[in-house]
Design brief:
The chain is about 5% helix and about 55% strand. The strands form 4 sheets. The chain has a 24-stranded antiparallel beta barrel. Strands 1, 3, 6, 7, 8, 9, 12, 13 and 14 form a 9-stranded mixed sheet that branches. By secondary structure, it is mostly beta strands.
């Protein structure tokens, strides 16, 4: 009951205003070109060669505009796209001319790693609701990238989405040619309509001293939404209904070895073999059921390392597991993250339903979990607790599209075991006043019953309940941007299936900036500034933080970017206030089309959270990505951080190195070596409690992979971990794993 009183108290005026505006402030429609998609009942050989005669009957879509760096400028090169369908697949071909084919940037790539290459792009809004779309990228050698994107509050892409589709590319004397074959069963779109209309765009990223982005319609920078500017594609009368049933059996085998005593002898583990099954069933064209039994959720791909030093909040890791990724966008709410599936670590079974019918989107997920992690936040920091018992987790969301761009949604999550539960319920929405001004809002209520284990070990009350709400207004124009936001999160608000790293605070913030544009041939192609201010209080009224930040950004030749800025933060940590002043720079550029370099550095005063004092801090992050040739690529990232006490005594020196070397036998076959090293050297005399002077962690992984598509693949690999602390004279390996994985996607 308290939750509904809270909604009424804080949002009745907001909802009334929003719905009133829905009927009084229509959006202006962007001018669109209408295209007809022909039906040609003939397949192609996807090889990057347009030798099939029926391509002559396909719809021609010229890419006639330059969007970056000049708005609606003239493209420096000619590009044409061709499209048709055969009832089962959408076919798209690009003929991309290039006066200097030797300067084309492309390599053999693993999927979703081609973002620095020359690419051609298809974006399709299959529901024609101008709110979400599919993106398909292909480089000149045929490497794939695919994402899902939403456009309810500016362009937001989710590269974790994967589909099964075919592509090929070939570099020619005139440029390059790309072919795509996208099965309709890989997409979701309205059912039971004799004629469909899709929003669409075809684009080309042309990598030279500046990045040219070219498109078929020319984006207006004064319009915040992108999908609302797309041209329209009519047809699809012969699209065949499909069972859209995909079965993916998985077989994994691994052996974990460890050392009970370090240094010491290896204790070789048994070979564990497990079979699992993933099911994806398109009940209709716009609704999909996913199910998984005994899934393999081992992390074949290593998480990118972050320096976990001098921070009080938990590190966020992105989701990579297929069961959770398919349809993940259907669970997203506007401002609060209520579902963070990395907290579900070891489920035995899971089931999920996601879909969209007309203005109605819906999603439901259930999974049990044998290794349940929950985030325990305060306004001073956060950490994870591991529950002793198996838990059952469920999440659901319903969203209704209002007007041309508005939304309103209901979300709930629930996690429980025998003597524990956490339930969250939320209402959120967005409203577009016009093409530049948007409003997003969300209110949520959480109710928790803590187990005896949680109460005794983490000093939690037996029951907890509280609310959170947030609102944000943004204005995005061609030459400037403004935003204002407000958040209020109660002390006992907890989302055990979500990610809320901080609670017990009230925060206001304002951001503003301005941009100027120059010609593509100029030393600078654009320059801008941005400034923001935010202030945070605890729920009892105590000041927690007062922060000011400003920076200048310059963009120019060699795809260069340079930022310089200052940050001032007045922060309350454990009832003591600290003034922090930090200067920072960031720069990145491509000295050659196959090399990308970046550097971030900062210097100033930061809180030493471990010793509760202010200190002098210096930190850098440098990264180099080099495509040695089509087959060899290397990616190296190094983080360095030091902190000194007020007396000038070194508190710690931290180094983190992430080295990745790739050899691509072909587009499907790859060998990858990953080396990760973290070294934190602590000065024991500078701490008020006992610490280890030596803190070294090493990890290595060698993996061979063969991928036919995102679900049909084979892995064979080895990984190990090593460490050293004050008790060891040398770095010692204490864990090693031999593993293999085989999965095959059957599409029926």
């Amino acid at each position: 009951m308290q939750y509904f009183i809270t909604i009424k108290k804080h949002f009745s005026v907001l909802f009334a205003l929003t719905f009133a505006l829905l009927f009084t402030t229509p959006l202006l429609a962007a001018e669109k070109t209408q295209y007809s998609l022909p039906h040609i009942n003939t397949d192609i050989t996807v090889d990057g060669v347009l030798d099939e005669p029926h391509w002559q009957k396909a719809t021609l879509v010229p890419i006639a505009f330059q969007d970056e760096p000049n708005e609606k400028g003239t493209p420096p090169v000619k590009t044409d796209a061709y499209m048709y369908e055969d009832g089962s697949n959408l076919y798209v071909a690009f003929v991309a001319e290039d006066p200097q084919p030797s300067q084309i940037t492309a390599s053999l790539r693993d999927r979703d790693t081609l973002w620095q290459d020359d690419t051609v792009i298809l974006i399709i809004d299959t529901f024609n609701d101008e709110r979400s779309a599919y993106e398909f990228y292909v480089n000149p050698l045929g490497a794939q990238g695919d994402t899902r994107m939403s456009d309810t509050d500016g362009w937001q892409s989710d590269p974790s989405w994967d589909a099964i589709w075919d592509s090929a590319g070939k570099i020619t004397e005139q440029g390059f040619v790309v072919e795509m074959r996208i099965p309709f069963k890989a997409l979701r779109f309205p059912e039971n309509k004799p004629d469909l209309t899709w929003g669409f765009a075809v684009l080309r990223n042309y990598q030279r001293d500046v990045l040219y982005q070219l498109s078929n319609m020319g984006f207006d920078r004064d319009i915040k939404c992108s999908l609302c500017q797309f041209d329209k594609l009519h047809g699809f009368k012969n699209v065949k209904a499909s069972q859209n049933l995909q079965l993916t059996p998985t077989l994994t085998a691994l052996r974990n070895d460890s050392k009970p005593i370090t240094p010491g002898n290896w204790d070789n583990g048994d070979i564990n073999t497990e079979a699992g099954l993933d099911l994806r069933w398109g009940v209709t064209q716009d609704a999909v059921i996913n199910a998984t039994i005994n899934p393999d959720f081992s992390q074949i791909e290593s998480d990118a390392l972050e320096l976990d030093v001098n921070t009080t909040y938990s590190i966020y890791y992105v989701e990579k597991r297929p069961f959770f990724l398919d349809g993940a966008s259907y669970f997203q709410s506007s401002l609060l993250e209520l579902l963070y599936t990395r907290t579900i670590a070891e489920p035995e079974v899971g089931v999920k339903l996601t879909g969209k019918t007309a203005q109605h989107s819906y999603a439901f997920m259930y999974a049990d979990d044998n290794n349940s992690n929950i985030l325990l936040p305060t306004n001073q920091g956060s950490g994870f607790a591991i529950l002793e018992d198996k838990t059952h987790a469920a999440a659901a969301r319903y969203q209704y599209d209002i007007g041309e761009q508005g939304t309103i949604g209901l979300s709930t999550t629930h996690r429980e075991s025998d003597d524990y539960y956490n339930t969250v319920f939320s209402i959120d929405g967005s409203y577009w006043f016009n093409q530049s001004d948007t409003l997003a809002y969300q209110v949520a209520s959480a109710d928790s019953k803590n187990s005896t284990f949680l109460s005794n070990n983490y000093n939690l009350a037996k029951t907890q309940s509280d609310e959170a709400y947030a609102i944000e207004f943004t204005r995005d124009k061609r030459d400037y941007n403004l935003s204002a936001s407000y958040e209020n999160v109660g002390e006992d608000y907890r989302t055990d299936l979500g990610y809320q790293e901080k609670v017990d605070y009230e925060k206001v913030g304002f951001v503003g900036g301005q941009t100027w544009y120059s010609d593509e041939s100029g030393l600078l192609t654009s320059w801008s500034y941005e400034a923001d201010w935010n202030k945070t209080w605890a729920q009892n009224g105590d000041l927690l933080e007062d922060e000011y930040q400003g920076f200048i950004t310059l963009k120019g030749q060699k795809q260069s970017i340079f930022e310089i800025g200052l940050l001032h933060r007045y922060e309350n940590y454990n009832d003591t206030f600290y003034n922090q002043n930090i200067g920072f720079i960031y720069t990145g550029f491509k000295p050659k089309n196959n090399i990308l370099l970046s550097f971030y550095g900062e210097y100033g005063s930061r809180i030493d959270y471990a010793n509760e004092q202010i200190g002098d801090s210096y930190a850098t992050q440098a990264q180099a990505q080099w495509d040695i040739n089509d087959h060899w690529q290397v990616d190296v990232k190094h983080n360095y951080s030091v902190l000194d006490s007020p007396e000038g005594e070194r508190v710690y020196t931290a180094n983190l190195l992430d080295f990745r070397l790739y050899y691509k036998f072909s587009m499907r076959s790859m060998l990858k070596l990953i080396l990760q090293f973290e070294d934190i050297d602590r000065n024991k005399d500078a701490y008020f409690y006992q610490v280890s002077h030596i803190n070294k962690d090493y990890g290595s992984k060698l993996v061979y992979s063969y991928k036919i598509n995102a679900q049909t693949l084979f892995y064979l690999g080895y990984s190990d971990k090593s460490y050293q602390d004050d008790s060891l004279k040398h770095v010692e390996r204490d864990q090693r794993t031999f593993f293999t994985k085989l999965s095959y996607a059957w599409q029926l």
